[in-house]
Amino acid sequence: MKIDTVCVQGCKDKLNSTGAISVPIYQSATFAHPGVNQSTGYDYSRLQNPTREAVENIVASLENGTQALAFSTGMAAISALMELFKIGDHIIASDDLYGGSIRLYHHISKKNGLKIDFANMSDISALKNKITKDTRAIFIETPTNPMMNVADIAAIKDMIKDKGILLIVDNTFLTPYFQQPLSLGADIVMHSGTKFLGGHNDTLAGFLVTSNKELAESLRFIHKTTGACLSPFDSFLMIRGIKTLAIRMEKAQENAIELANWLLKQKKVTAVHYIGLKSHPDFELSKKQARGFGSMITFEVASEQIAHQILEKVKLILFAESLGGVETLITYPMLQTHADVPQNEREARGINERLLRISVGIENIDDIISDIKQAME
């Protein structure tokens, strides 16, 4: 099946005896045993639940993986991922990274004895110079949040393939509909399912996906032991969201391309970062390793006053954190997603008082552009 068909038809309830089209919400904490040393396949919902199992299966299928694990949030997924490592292990992460991930690395991972470095993943030689004998993983976002830098997944994997280093890719921005990192050599793919996979800004979720049996077993043990599993109801909402993933991604991307080109022509806009622009330095790489460009745009305006004006005057567009829903959202990274990043680090990444990020939704593009236009005036 093609991937858009998988989104719609790929999630089935293996227990279904009623003909229900939607996977039921198995709202049960525990399951009865038929007898001693017998099980229905389900024992306790922290270990596995039929609704969660269904969404894990569809996410694994979309990513061309063999197993997926569903967590209560994206950060819960990354936190569980860090439990693969021990004191003294060295991890290299993208230097332009979601602020919550940076906060986790600085305040939790380092406290737990992990050594964390950050590198420009678009520069293979710079990354190579960061690798030490203790390096156990490279964690990349591609494209990055919020500066939209792209890393060459296959090239990074080729560089580390004989070094025993895991390649972990946060695929939240492009989703498996546009990009499948496992097929490019990644060992583990991470998602904040809250974003595009769910697609409606109504639930939190996180996923880890792999095709490595040993990694899957280790992650499954961590998952059941630490316990941040996705609830049956939230699993149901994720399944519902994934059914429209393909058409949402296509429509939002169509809008984003038009909006990015419009922003380029505005005198009050000094820079536009969108990987679907031919002027983007990673445009050709994006075409090579992904099927699309997504719908995330970051742009810089001429002054802090203009940035504040836009945030306060938008009417259709919502000034809110998060991304990936059907509604267009605008975010102020320095005060929201990256508020906990020290100012000098934040500004070194280009995240200043003039920078805005837009998650383009599926509204009519004329209405989106009209709203930004009136907010700029």
Mean pLDDT: 96
User: Structural class, please?
Assistant: alpha/beta
Oligomeric category: single chain
Report the uncertain regions: none
Physical arrangement of strands within the biggest beta sheet: 1-7-6-5-4-2-3
Shape: globular
Q: Biggest sheet, open or closed, and with what strands and sense?
A: 7 strands, mixed
Computed Rg = 21 Å
The CATH homologous superfamily name of the largest domain equals Type I PLP-dependent aspartate aminotransferase-like (Major domain)
Tally of structural domains: 2
β-sheet strand percentage: 15-25%
> The CATH topology of the largest domain is what?
Aspartate Aminotransferase, domain 2
Order of helices and strands: HHEHEHEHEHEHEEHHHEHEHEEHEH
- Distance from N terminus to C terminus (CA atoms, Å) equals 48 Å
Number of strands: 12
Overall CATH architecture of the largest domain:
3-Layer(aba) Sandwich
